[in-house]
Specification:
Layout: H1 6-22, H2 27-59
Length: 79
């Protein structure tokens, strides 16, 4: 599970929610997929926290202060 990307984790988490909401699983099966879901939810949270830290680093100015500014996307230039 450590190789899963955020989108894959989220997709699987949505599948687990649908399974649990369906009510067709035994108690043991429900617990098993619930545990998987908790693990995936934690992994998604970690991905989002990491993304937030990366954005914060990118948003700091030269003095290290955080500020707000509009996002301006510039395509990479070929060398």
């Amino acid at each position: 599970m450590t190789d899963l990307k955020f989108e894959d984790c989220l997709t699987r988490l949505e599948q687990i929610v649908a399974l649990l909401e369906g009510g067709n699983l035994s108690l043991e099966e429900s617990l098993k997929v619930y545990e998987e879901g908790v693990s995936l939810a934690r992994r998604c949270a970690a991905y989002l926290e990491d993304a937030d830290r990366r954005i914060e680093v990118l948003a700091k100015d030269d003095a290290g202060s955080l500020g707000t500014r509009p996002f301006a996307w510039e395509p990479e230039r070929e060398a």
